[in-house]
Amino acid sequence: MNFDIAPNAPTPIYRQIVEQVRRLVASGQLRPGDDLPSVRVVALHHAINPMTVSKAYSLLETEGLLERRRGLGMVIAQTRARSTQQDKLALLRPALSTASQIAKQLGLDDKQALAAFQTCLNEWSKKEAP
Amino acid sequence: MNFDIAPNAPTPIYRQIVEQVRRLVASGQLRPGDDLPSVRVVALHHAINPMTVSKAYSLLETEGLLERRRGLGMVIAQTRARSTQQDKLALLRPALSTASQIAKQLGLDDKQALAAFQTCLNEWSKKEAP
Amino acid sequence: MNFDIAPNAPTPIYRQIVEQVRRLVASGQLRPGDDLPSVRVVALHHAINPMTVSKAYSLLETEGLLERRRGLGMVIAQTRARSTQQDKLALLRPALSTASQIAKQLGLDDKQALAAFQTCLNEWSKKEAP
Amino acid sequence: MNFDIAPNAPTPIYRQIVEQVRRLVASGQLRPGDDLPSVRVVALHHAINPMTVSKAYSLLETEGLLERRRGLGMVIAQTRARSTQQDKLALLRPALSTASQIAKQLGLDDKQALAAFQTCLNEWSKKEAP
DNA sequence: GTGGTCTAGACCACT
DNA sequence: GTGGTCTAGACCACG
What we know:
- Four copies of one chain form a homotetramer.
- Chain A is mainly alpha-helical and 130 residues long.
- Chain A folds into two domains: 13-76, Arc Repressor Mutant, subunit A, CATH 1.10.10.10; 85-128, no CATH class.
- Chain A has five helices and two strands.
- Chain A has a two-stranded antiparallel sheet with strand order 1-2.
- In chain A, a hairpin with a 3-residue loop joins strand 1 and strand 2 (73-76).
- In chain A, helix 1 packs across helix 3 and helix 2 (39-46) crosses helix 3 (50-63).
- The A-B interface holds A 4, 10-11, 19-20, 23-24, 26-29, 85, 88-89, 91-93, 95-108, 110, 112-114, 116-118, 120-121, 123-125, 128 and B 4, 10-11, 19-20, 23-24, 26-29, 85, 88-89, 91-93, 95-108, 110, 112-114, 116-118, 120-121, 123-125, 128.
- Chain B binds a DNA duplex (15 and 15 nucleotides) through helix 3.
C-alpha cells in the first residue's frame, strides 16, 4: 500500500489521501477488513505531518469508509457494498470534464486529445505495474 | 471574449482566469496586440470583485503574457511566438495525467476510460458549438 | 529581521518589501531555509494591512525566491545559489544610473556627485550601526 | 533639446518630463526665455500621448517655471533666480539616499559603491557628450 | 498558529 | 475611461 503524494500540488495533502482511499476501495483494490498503513508510517514515508494523515483517516471514518480498531489501526469498513462501474465512472468524470474543457479551449481536436490521454494512461500503467 | 467562471469551483477565480487566458493565447484565439476586456467589465459581467480580475491580469503581466498600456488597458504581449502543438499538449497534460491516475486507481481499463473521455469531449463540443 | 518601510514613499509598500527581501537574500543576510516573519507580524509591526505583506510574499514566491511551507509560513527557497558581487552590483545599478542621470542634468561634475554620495553612505552607516 | 523618456519605468512619463525640465533649468542648461519643444513634437518623437506632455507642461506652468507664449509655445519663465549649488545637491540627494540604502542592504562597502557610481557617471557622460 | 481568497469601498495615477 | 494600491474585515484551508 503506497499513497501517491504530491506535496506541492494545489490540492491539499489530506484530500489527496482521502480521494485515493475512496478510489482504491471503489475498485476493490482495498477490501473490507484490509488494514491501512499507520499514520506514523505514512507520515514518515512521505515526510509530512502526522496530523495531516490523521485528518484524512478521520474524515474517512466519519464517512463510514474506515473503522478504527483500537490498538490495531484503521481497517476498511465491512458495511460497504462493492461499487458498480457506474460509480467508478462517476468518480472519474470530473477529471475528464476538466480535461475536455481545456482541450476545447486549446483548439485541439478530439483525436489529438484522445491520443494524448492514451499516452498518459500508458505511463501510469508502467508506474504501477512493474 | 467571454470567460468561463465557476464561482464555486475549488480552484480560485483569479486562477481560472489566468489559465483560460493562457489557453486562449496558446490556441491563437487571442493574438499579440489584442486587448482584453477591462477589469471592470469582466467584474460586472461575472458579478465578481474587480480586484479579483485585476489580480489575474497582474499575474499574467508578471508572466510576460500581457502588457499594460497605461490608461488604456491590457493587451496580449507582442513578444510571444505562436504556440506549437507541443505547447498546447503541455498545457493539457497535467489534467490528463490526473485523470489517468484516477482511472488506474479505480481499476478501469483504458478502453472504458477513453470512451468516457470521448463522451465528455462531445458534451463540451455541444456547449460551445450551438 | 526588520523591514524598512516608508509608507509615504512613491514606491508602493508591497514593492518596498519585495525589493528588500531580494537584497537581503543577495547579501546573504537571509539564507536558504531561513524563515520570514509571518504576514501578521510584519503587518502589525508596521501598522499596515496583512494583505499588503501577503502580496509581497506571493510575488516573491512566484519569483522562486520564497517557498511556502503550508501551515508554517514562508522560508527562503533552497534553490538559490549564493549571489556573486556581480549580482549585487546589478541590483544597485538602476539606482546609481538614475542618480547619474540627475547629476548630469544638473550640471554637477563627478567630483561633487561622488562627494555627495559618500555623505549619504555615511548617514546610512550611522543609521544601521548604532 | 531631448527628453530622456523610459515608457516602462515605474515613474510616470509626465513626471519624468517635469523633473527633467526642473533639473535642466536648475543647471542653467535651459535659461529664461529659451523655448521648449512643442507638445506635438515631443509626443511624436517619443511615441507618447500628447496629453501626457501637455500635462507636464501645465504643471510646470502652474509652478511658475514655464510661461505660455500664445501661438509660440512654452518658454522658460523670466522670474527664476539661478539655482545655487545647494539647490542642485538638494535635487540630487533623494536619488543618492535611495542608492545608499540599497548598497548598505546588499552589504557592499563604500569603496565598491563609489566605484560603481563612477562607472555609471562615465556612461551618462558618453551618452550626452558625443 | 500559518497563508489564501474574496468582498466592498476608497483614493490615486495615467491617458 | 483605464489599472494600481491600500484598507478593513470576513471566511476558509492547512498543520
